[in-house]
Amino acid sequence: MTRLRIAIHSDLREHGEQAAVYRETLDLFSRAEELGFDGAWVRSYKFRRTGGTPGFSFPGGLPSPFPFLGALAARTSRIRLGTAVVPLPLENVVRVAEDAAVLDAISAGRLELGVSNGGRPPISTALGVGLDPDPAAKKAGYLRSLRTLVSVLDGDPVNGTDQELNPSAPGLSARIWESALTRQTGHDSAARGNGVLIGTTQTVPAEVTASAYYASLPDGVQPRVGLVVHVHPAADRGAGLAALEADVETVYAWGKDWLPPAQTLAEKAAVINVHYGTPEQIAESIRAFPAFRHTTELQFSVAYGTTERRQRRAAIEAIAYEIAPRLGWQPASAVVESRARAKAAALERDLRA
Amino acid sequence: MIIRENDEPLSLAAYAILNESGDQARNYHDALELFAQAERLGVEGLWVRQFHLRRRGPGTQSAPAGGLSSPFVFLAWLAARTSRLRLGTAAVTLPLESPLRVAEDAAVLDSLSGGRVELGVANGGSSPGLAELFRGTSALDRAPGGGIEEAGRRAVYRAHLARLSEALDGGGLNASGTQLNPLGTGLADRIWEATLTEHSGYDTGARGNGVLIGTTQTVPAVVTARSYYRGLDRHAAEFGARPPRVGIATLIYPAKDRETALREAREGIEEKYEWGSKFLPPATTLAEKAASIGLHYGTPEQITESILAQPWFPYATQLMVQTELFYSSYAHRAEALELFVREVAPALGWADASQVVPLG
């Protein structure tokens, strides 16, 4: 059994001025590294509607994950830097390879490259990208892009010319993850040897995708299953649910056409994968989530139900100190050692004083 | 005596093409450290070039073995490690890119850096084969005439530039009124265009943008600079006055005397001259070739004198100091940059901006 990893996961759609949200998220992720988190993932959203302000009900967000992660690379030294995800149908795949390669070079190989078959009108129209309205044709286009991405990252000649990717991206093609929302994509991603990102609003339960993934994983390939979970630590379940009400209702209303049916607020929170209450209750709730046993990396989102940055900082501390250890997580040995060194140094200072 | 043809304070930037051969990750790392150091020296800005891909096998001047393919990712690292340095792209090859993806990358970097982006774009000059590589995903396919010939390329460039400016200005991008996000940083007023000709210099001015001028051009830099000012007058007549923004690449090699500089830099001079021999001013001796490629070398006094003697100097508002091609290491470059900042720039009329309260 591989060691369970934990990551912080953000969609950067908290309310507030966008630049302030970016800055706060960089601070939060830097803190996550100090706390021993293994990875940081950012979602990507494009554009906003005229007159809109950022926030869940009115999408703002981060359209360019690579520059954001470039800034995070400068502020951290160990944490893995993940895109969740780059929608390949909207992108020039050679440019994606370049962004990824430069980020990997300046971060000493810390990129985890998540991609998807996302993108739809009117976003594609605004970008000037034509998307095939036939899902099968769109999927075929995605697979062509993914093959090109792998080949370019591997240093093959680009489009049959004498040109190749610069900088080189050694090993990066083995760090591709695919967003997988169905049983079929779980199978396919595994067969390609890629990781899967699950747990966001899926059309089938996450455990269905996850078990399909394991069933098709080639021999000798390490499984990589990243499960997003939304957590909201609170004094008890009732207080947690009360704080979550507005966000849960908004998200459920948005996905009600394909989410499992739910009536009460607690049921709605459950179907959108929100875990709340005391650290014990959150750990118990995640353990009971069927996809958890398939998970190699838990990706914690702490945005729902919070309005202030101090709440989000407190939440990631609760995750590192109280929730994740109950789920079998331990900080990487490098983190344990550096904590021990800091403790020893502090002790020595005290003795001298 | 220092003659200036504009009223702007002369500013200083480091300019890097980053196309050294060797371990690219190592180069990037060393370059990032050098630029963070440049801010501490009081240099106001940084410009990085963009090179897509590389030819398989060893590189040359015209087909470098390396380079920086994603300037926004690189500059984001610096945004986190610096607080005042202006972060410039010199330049993004616009016809190869989706203008809205460029707008998104630039807008995110501007947000992350507190409004420090200087967005340089270019038509791309001659990059044989590149357009074909990006075919299928680049708007070059939709160029009038369906091709990549010069006129078509210029039309694509203009269309992309218009789309980029519109997006950065918060214009609606489709029928449902979709807007760029993030917005509101005034980045549309910080576009610069890299130009190579008299004509494009004029157009840049007429659009009210800044101009980036290399010294190895098909026409002398002063010709482009002068026509930029004429274009800017045209812009003023129609839309109101804007201050000139003229960045000129300034390649330096300090040494204890001119002979030593020439001797140490010989290989780089010969290679660069060879690369540009079709359009550079003709030269026979090494000193002539050094002048032809726009190299300023020798003692601080000699470098000062050489720059002041340039016909373009009175038109420059920013010197983009380039410590490349001839240097043995990044430590060597740092030394040269520091010497320039401390001993050359003040003699050119530069006032150290690090004494000024930082903006934003």
Write structural notes for this entry.
The complex is a heterodimer of chains A (353) and B (360). With 353 residues, chain A is an alpha/beta fold. Chain A is 44% helix and 15% strand. Chain A has helices spanning 18-34, 65-75, 93-106, 123-127, 135-153, 183-191, 206-216, 237-255, 265-271, 279-288, 309-323, 333-352, and strands at residues 5-10, 39-42, 48-49, 80-87, 111-116, 163-164, 176-179, 195-198, 225-233, 274-277, 297-301. Chain A has an 8-stranded parallel barrel with strand order 1-2-4-5-7-8-9-11, surrounded by 7 helices. Chain A starts with a strand and ends with a helix. Helices cover 40% and strands 15% of the residues of chain B. Chain B has 11 helices and 11 strands. Chain B is globular. Chain B has an 8-stranded parallel barrel, surrounded by 9 helices. At the A-B interface, helix 1, strand 3, helix 2, helix 3 and helix 4 of A face helix 1, strand 3, helix 2, helix 3 and helix 4 of B.
Describe the structure using short key phrases:
heterodimer; A: 353 residues; alpha/beta; 8-stranded parallel barrel; 12 helices; 11 strands; 15% strand; B: 360 residues; 11 helices
Give a summary of the structure in a few sentences.
The complex is a heterodimer of chains A (353) and B (360). With 353 residues, chain A is of the alpha/beta class. Chain A is built from twelve helices and eleven strands.
What is the secondary structure topology, with strand pairs?
The complex is a heterodimer of chains A (353) and B (360).
Chain A: E1 5-10, H1 18-34, E2 39-42, E3 48-49, H2 65-75, E4 80-87, H3 93-106, E5 111-116, H4 123-127, H5 135-153, E6 163-164, E7 176-179, H6 183-191, E8 195-198, H7 206-216, E9 225-233, H8 237-255, H9 265-271, E10 274-277, H10 279-288, E11 297-301, H11 309-323, H12 333-352
Parallel strand pairs in A: 1-2, 1-11, 2-4, 4-5, 5-7, 7-8, 8-9, 9-10, 9-11
Helix pairs in contact in A: 1-2, 1-11, 2-3, 3-5, 6-7, 8-9, 10-11
Chain B: E1 11-16, H1 24-41, E2 45-48, E3 54-55, H2 71-81, E4 86-93, H3 99-112, E5 117-122, H4 130-133, H5 150-168, E6 178-179, E7 191-195, H6 198-206, E8 210-213, H7 221-239, E9 246-254, H8 258-276, H9 286-292, E10 295-298, H10 300-308, E11 318-322, H11 330-344
Parallel strand pairs in B: 1-2, 1-11, 2-4, 4-5, 5-7, 7-8, 8-9, 9-10, 9-11
Helix pairs in contact in B: 1-2, 1-11, 2-3, 3-5, 6-7, 8-9, 10-11
